[in-house]
Amino acid sequence: MTRDLNRLLRPRTIAVIGGGAWCRQVIEQCQKMGFDGDVWPVHPSTPEIAGVPCFRSVKDLPSAPDASFIGVNRDTTINLVQTLSEMKAGGAVCFASGFLEAVAEDASGADLQSQLLYAAGGMPILGPNCYGFINYLDGALLWPDQHGGKRVNNGVAIVTQSSNIAINLTMQQRGLPLAYVITAGNQAQTGISEIGRALLDDPRVTALGLHIEGIGNLRAFEDLAAHARALGKSIVAIKVGRSTQARAATVSHTASLAGGDAGANALLKRLGIARVSDLPTFIETLKVLHITGPLTQNTVATISCSGGEASLAADTGLDHGATFPALNNRQKTDLRIALGPRVALANPLDYHTYIWRDVTAMTQAFAAMADPAIAMTILIVDFPRPDRCSPDDWDCVIAAAIGAQKQTGTHYGMAATLPELMPESVSETLIASGIVPFCGLSEALAACAAAVIQLSSNTDPILRPGPEIIPILIPEGDAKNRLALHGLNIPKSERCATKTDVFDAASNIGFPLVLKGEGVAHKTEAGAVRLNIRSAKEARSAAENMDAPSFLIEQMITDTVVELLIGVVRDPAHGFVLTIAAGGILTEVLQDSASLLVPASQAAIEQSLDSLKIAPLLNGYRGAQSADRSAILRAIQAVQDYTIANAIGLSEIEINPLICTPNDAIAADALLRCIK
Q1: Domains of the chain
Q2: Rounded Cα gap, residues 139 and 559, in angstroms
Q3: For the residues of 342-392, what is the DSSP string, one character each?
Q4: pLDDT (tens digit, 9 = 90+) per residue, 619-646?
Q5: Which helix (H) or strand (E) holds 551?
Q6: How far from chain centre, in Å, is Cα 321?
Q7: Is there a contact between 271 and 223 (Cβ–Cβ < 8 Å)?
Q8: 3-class SS string, 635-655
Q9: Is the pLDDT of residue 87 over 80?
Q10: CA–CA gap between residue 675 and residue 477 (Å, rounded)
Q11: Which has the closest alpha carbon to 557: 647, 650, 628?
């Protein structure tokens, strides 16, 4: 269900219910921000709050308020929400805590949250345990604390599940124009996806930033991403919750590689949402998206008047995947005209200080560096601290940057190597001229890389897992046969109930062969696998020295080009994570993997194969034979097909190794955990 949040987030009338300091703060914030609608304090015994006369009850209000801040205890909050809902109010912020988030300490919290939802009915609520929101576009603040923002005409919107992070983001001095800052609290009714859609619908919002602790509704999140694409707006996210504990509890190598974070990463990548890992890069990426929109490539050029800064830029680019294209003939010619013969021309460029203060020459040089092959041309400029120095001598570089941007119409940024050396006043001047002010060189290059947002061609809904399950480990022979029904190529094999059966089975299979003990997840580590057996006698001897209840004896695959791991792990929050990785003994040594969500398109699978460190081996390294790529793709699709057909009850699949030969791809080992 999608509720209409427009009335709540863009109100003309605001009710502030309660008499504490929190409620006074809400009223005073609206007054300071110049909100030109009506603010109605509600308190049964206080005559006025912040100079505004109080109404004794919600029912005494002149009309149903568009937005209400409810700053009372949790029990009274429920009653007030019901009253507001019956009045057809636009929505409410539920500030009180003690609901589901406190269930570990107070068992009644879950029941109270259910009561709150019932009381709200169809009326939107934010929270509970929620600070509310700031609308800097209209000066409407249902916000019970300090903030550091100001009114803007347009800007980015931010939604976070952490009220403290929201406060901190409003205090940024990096020049980022904030249109909205919204806290979601418990998301008892209205989640970040629903809030995000409503914010993107405001034409004054240029981009959306999300701080995500968890994604509760996968379909709603997919809809948010699709809505952003339809509007031509971009989303950047910080997704927290990486977990080593999740990896420690896994059975398969696949689950170990996927960990607790691969699903989130695959989800965001699939939906075309930029992911960053820290708040500074989050802010800087939002600046790029606000000013230029998404970048088409990760190519940059930097210009500085220091060889040290040029070298620093080149080295820093390696950490963030930024590339520095070599200068073409046109750039060299134009730069030589602007700079003269004493400057070595390269990208990154050290243009020295020969032309400093010559705005015309500086503009000419900065314009010469821009090129269609470069996504962002960055001027490296550290401004002196104004309390001890005069920044006036740096006015020339600002004027030249603005002039170059106007002349070329390309994307320019100005980056201080140290974040504190980009004054907020300079940032605001640059933003007004369409230039991205970067606070920090590392943050600048990371933001440029993050802003290259590639939309997946796969628009199929993500396969959602069924209810929580308690899986069992399926015997390998049975697991392979089940997967073979969906097209996976497996070796010729026989299952043996006893060690005596191994002798006869070996002769039936042919040599060389492999003997495996069943019921063991990691056979090599447990000594439950024996390779290259050449006789029936050797097979029986191997079985007698192997501690296993039953055995699988199978054809040994030779002529190996490379070994891959293909696996699927059930991720309750994100769907089924498909992992493609270096296999065999290299799995944990190389940690070379790529993760996708099921169903993954063939294009995405091929791109993942090409991203592996061992990709050159697949393609025939140094004259060696290449692997049969079509057979590999069929094997991966077989695993996907099985997953889709058995989503309810499936926990893990792992093919390791998938032996890739010049003519085939065969599952030499298979692990399957499901409910039956």
Answers
A1: 6-213 (3.40.50.720), 295-450 (3.40.50.261), 492-555 (3.30.1490.20)
A2: 70
A3: TS---SSEE-TTTTTT-HHHHHHHHHHH--TT-SEEEEE--PPPTTTS--G
A4: 888 888 899 999 999 999 999 999 999 9
A5: strand 551-555
A6: 17
A7: no
A8: HHHHHHHHHHHCCCCEEEEEE
A9: yes
A10: 17
A11: 628
Provide CB contacts within 8 A for 76, sequence distance 6+.
none
Identify any residues that bridge with 667 across adjacent strands, giving them in sequence order: 658
Cis peptide bond prior to 391, omega within 30° of 0: no
Q: Rounded to the nearest 5°, which phi and psi values hold at 48?
A: -150, 155
Q: 14 to each of 91, 368, 543, how far by Cα in Å?
A: 10, 53, 78
Residue 117: what residue type? Answer: L
C-alpha–C-alpha distance, residues 55 and 39, integer Å: 11
What residues form DSSP beta bridges with 570? 576
Q: Are 127 and 78 in contact (CB under 8 A)?
A: no
Q: What angle do CA 387, 392, 397 make, to 5 degrees?
A: 125
Q: Characterize 451-466 residue by residue with b for buried, 16 or more Cβ atoms within 10 angstroms of its Cβ, and e for exposed.
A: bbbeebebeeebbebe
Which of residues 566 and 532 earns the better pLDDT score?
566
Q: Which two tokens stand for residue 334?
A: 């134009």
> Treating both helix axes as pointing N-terminal to C-terminal, what angle do 307-320 and 441-450 enclose, rounded to 10 degrees?
40
Query: Which residue, among 413, 420, 417, 411, has the nearest Cα to 441 in the 3D structure?
Result: 417
pTM here is 0.89
Q: What tokens does 94 get?
A: 């539920």
- Name the 3-class secondary structure at 507: helix
